[in-house]
C-alpha cells in the first residue's frame, strides 16, 4: 500500500495528537513501563524479590506481614504497615496495595493480582530504566491506505473463547461479541476478526499480522469506534498499539483468538519498542 498523506493533512494532525496522548499515558508513574517483577505467592510466608515483608496466600486470601522498619505504607491511606494485612480479590482483579522506597517512600508500588485463580504480586518501580529512558513508541509513518472500511456482525450472545496470554502459566478468556469483517489489498478472501466490547459501544480487536516478530511485537490491538447504524465500521490500523507485554516480560496480556490473523504485512501503527 502506498501513502498519499502530506504533512499538512488534518488526518496526520489528529494521528499525531493520538500519538502524543498514547506516549503520555505510557509514561505515567507506576504505569506499565515500571514493572520489574511478577511473582506467585505461596502458602508459607516468604520473602520475595524487590519488596520487603513476608508474603503468602491460603488460596482465597493474600497476606502480608511486615514491621514498621520495613518502610511499607498502604497506597490507599498512607498508613504504615506494622503487622499482618490481608486482601481478597476476584480473578483478573488487581490492587495497588503497598509502596516503599525512594526519598518519599513512594518509588515502588507493589500490586497484588489474581491471575488464573492464583495470587501474585508485581513490583512497579518508577526508577525502572524502561520508564526513565522512555521517549516514545516507534511507529510506522501515517498511511491513509490503512484506514479500512468494513462491517460488524454481532453475535446474538457473547461467546467466551479460551485464549493464551503473554504468561504461559496464565490462561485467558476472550469475550467475543461479534466479528469485524473487511478486505485488504493482497488478500483474496474477506478477513474476519473476533472483537470485544469496549465502553460506549466501541470495539477492541487483537490480531496477528505478517510484521509480527520482525518490525512489530507478536500481536497488537486496535480500537474501533462504535459501529454505525448500518453496521459499518472504520478500522484505522495507524492506531494499532502494543500490549504492555511488548515493553515488559511481566505482563499477562491476552493473545489473539485463534485465527485472528491478517495474512499480509500491516505496516501501520506501533512497532517493537526499540526498533
Furnish the topology, listing elements before pairings:
Blueprint: H1 10-26, E1 35-40, E2 46-48, E3 51-57, E4 62-66, E5 73-74, E6 83-87, E7 94-100, E8 108-115, E9 118-125, H2 129-132, E10 147-163, E11 172-182, E12 191-197, E13 203-209, E14 220-224, E15 232-236, E16 261-262
Parallel strand pairs: 13-16
Antiparallel strand pairs: 1-9, 2-3, 3-4, 4-6, 5-7, 7-8, 8-9, 10-11, 10-15, 11-12, 12-13, 13-14
Main sheet record: 7 strands, mixed
Helix content: under 10%
Structural class: mainly beta
Order of helices and strands: HEEEEEEEEEHEEEEEEE
Distance between the termini: 21 Å
Number of domains: 2
Oligomeric status of the shown chains? single chain
Brief characterization of the structure:
The protein is mainly β and 275 residues long.
Protein model, in words:
With 275 residues, this protein is mainly beta. It folds into 2 domains: 10-27 and 136-262, no CATH class; 32-131, no CATH class. The protein is built from 2 helices and 16 strands. The strands form 3 sheets. Strands 10, 11, 12, 13, 14, 15 and 16 form a 7-stranded mixed beta sheet that branches. A 5-stranded antiparallel beta sheet has the order 1-9-8-7-5, with no helix packed on it. A hairpin with a 7-residue loop joins strand 7 (94-100) and strand 8. The chain is globular and about 65 Å long. The mean pLDDT is 96.
Give the tags.
seven-stranded mixed β-sheet; 16 strands; 38% strand; 2 domains; five-stranded antiparallel β-sheet; 275 residues; mainly beta
Amino acid at each position: 500500500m502506498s501513502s498519499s498523506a502530506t504533512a499538512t493533512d488534518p488526518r496526520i494532525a489528529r494521528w499525531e495528537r493520538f500519538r502524543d496522548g498514547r506516549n503520555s499515558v505510557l509514561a505515567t508513574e507506576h504505569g506499565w513501563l515500571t514493572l520489574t517483577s511478577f511473582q506467585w505467592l505461596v502458602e508459607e510466608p516468604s520473602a520475595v524479590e524487590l519488596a520487603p515483608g513476608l508474603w503468602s496466600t491460603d488460596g482465597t486470601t493474600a497476606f502480608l506481614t511486615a514491621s514498621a522498619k520495613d518502610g511499607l505504607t498502604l497506597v490507599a491511606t498512607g498508613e504504615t504497615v506494622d503487622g499482618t494485612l490481608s486482601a481478597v480479590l476476584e480473578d483478573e482483579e488487581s490492587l495497588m496495595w503497598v509502596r516503599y522506597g525512594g526519598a518519599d517512600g513512594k518509588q515502588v508500588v507493589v500490586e497484588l493480582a489474581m491471575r488464573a485463580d492464583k495470587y501474585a504480586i508485581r513490583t512497579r518501580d518508577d526508577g525502572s530504566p524502561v520508564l526513565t529512558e522512555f521517549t516514545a513508541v516507534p511507529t510506522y509513518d501515517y498511511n491513509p491506505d490503512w484506514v479500512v472500511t468494513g462491517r460488524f456482525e454481532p453475535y446474538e450472545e457473547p461467546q467466551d473463547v479460551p485464549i493464551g496470554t503473554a504468561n504461559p502459566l496464565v490462561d485467558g478468556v476472550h469475550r467475543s461479541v461479534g466479528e469485524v469483517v473487511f478486505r485488504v489489498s493482497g488478500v483474496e478472501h474477506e478477513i474476519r476478526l473476533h472483537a470485544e466490547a469496549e465502553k460506549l459501544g466501541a470495539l477492541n480487536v487483537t490480531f496477528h499480522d505478517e510484521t509480527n516478530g520482525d518490525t512489530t511485537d507478536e500481536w497488537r490491538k486496535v480500537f474501533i469506534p462504535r459501529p454505525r447504524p448500518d453496521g459499518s465500521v472504520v478500522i484505522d490500523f495507524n492506531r494499532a498499539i502494543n500490549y504492555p507485554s511488548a515493553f515488559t516480560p511481566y505482563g499477562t496480556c491476552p493473545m489473539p483468538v485463534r485465527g485472528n490473523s491478517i495474512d499480509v504485512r500491516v505496516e501501520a501503527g506501533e512497532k517493537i519498542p526499540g526498533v
